[in-house]
Amino acid sequence: MDKAVLFQKFVTFAAAVHEVTHELTKDIKPDDITPVQYSILEYIAVSQPVTLSQISDCKHISMPNTSRELKKLTEKNLCEKFDVAEDRRKQLIRLSAAGQTMMDETFQQIGGRFLNRIKDASAEELETINRALDVLQSKVFYE
Amino acid sequence: MDKAVLFQKFVTFAAAVHEVTHELTKDIKPDDITPVQYSILEYIAVSQPVTLSQISDCKHISMPNTSRELKKLTEKNLCEKFDVAEDRRKQLIRLSAAGQTMMDETFQQIGGRFLNRIKDASAEELETINRALDVLQSKVFYE
DNA sequence: CTCGTTGATTATCATTTGATAACTAAATGG
DNA sequence: CCATTTAGTTATCAAATGATAATCAACGAG
């Protein structure tokens, strides 16, 4: 397997993933939430509870800007901050009840579109897809 | 294979792809070019020659904004516009020599990082990765 | 105890991006 | 032909994002 060819395929593949992700999520993002705010909410939803620093690191947003956006999200009652007993500098962030409901609904819709996308796949194909995801995740898209 | 589980894996996977893509490309983008401009250049590099409308469609940027950004790129001598004989409304966009050189170097660097990422994979593993890319591209990330 | 580091906040500013309206020119379809 | 559609441009405005400096409190190592 020529590695240069593999790189070519990787480039095409990454573009396709971005495009499909966009396709699955477009027009779903709830009103009054900017793209960056949505991506933060998504991250919180999957990884909660998280600290501000974690959000900053993982989403590549500076601390001041993370703090600003999180403040807005808190003001919109979509997430909540909790003090950490062991380290009083830190704050843990979780989705509020309203935020959880909102993200649940969002994932519900995205999931629906995803299912529609794979609706023609047979059981064996689904198994193949599953293994392919594992392979790539561990060998290429790790860390 | 439970489809809901597959969706969960898809979400994690898409996030990993985004993250690794970011990792591979960060700090490489040449000076004086905004992220959106870079993504346009990338698209032109892979698909040239393209029309303004194609860029607008594929990158989800409105025509006025596409026109504006393309004008800036043209002023920076990174791409060139050509009239189309058959339809004088249209314009084909290509990278200029300088733009081509710049993008070649960029891809060179990204490719280096990619190779480093898969450097421990055996020949069989590379073949497995290759097939996994094909499977996902055709069954999940199509279109 | 003190110094350096970490986690977070506020304020401010420049830049980038997105959105809209108004317009030209060329094609296309009755 | 004339109306409509397509391709692209320009101008303008608002909003989102990124970057920086200054600050504060709490922790941790020596």
From TrEMBL, chains A, B:
Q: Mind listing the GO biological process terms from this record? A: response to stress
InterPro entries named among the record's database cross-references = HTH_MarR-typ (IPR000835), MarR/SlyA-like (IPR039422), WH-like_DNA-bd_sf (IPR036388), WH_DNA-bd_sf (IPR036390)
Q: Which domain of life is it from?
A: Bacteria
Q: State the UniProt keywords alphabetically.
A: DNA-binding
The residue stretches assigned to a coiled coil in this entry are none
What's the short name of a Pfam family annotated to this entry?
Answer: MarR
Give the PROSITE patterns listed for this entry.
HTH_MARR_2
Q: Which SMART domains match?
A: HTH_MARR
Q: Which organism is it from?
A: Cohnella terricola
**Record-given protein name:** MarR family transcriptional regulator
Statement: the UniProt record of this protein carries the keyword Glycosyltransferase: no
TM spans, by residue?
none
Q: Which residues form the HTH marR-type domain?
A: 3-138
User: Does the record carry DNA-binding as a key word?
Assistant: yes
GO terms for molecular function, please?
DNA binding; DNA-binding transcription factor activity
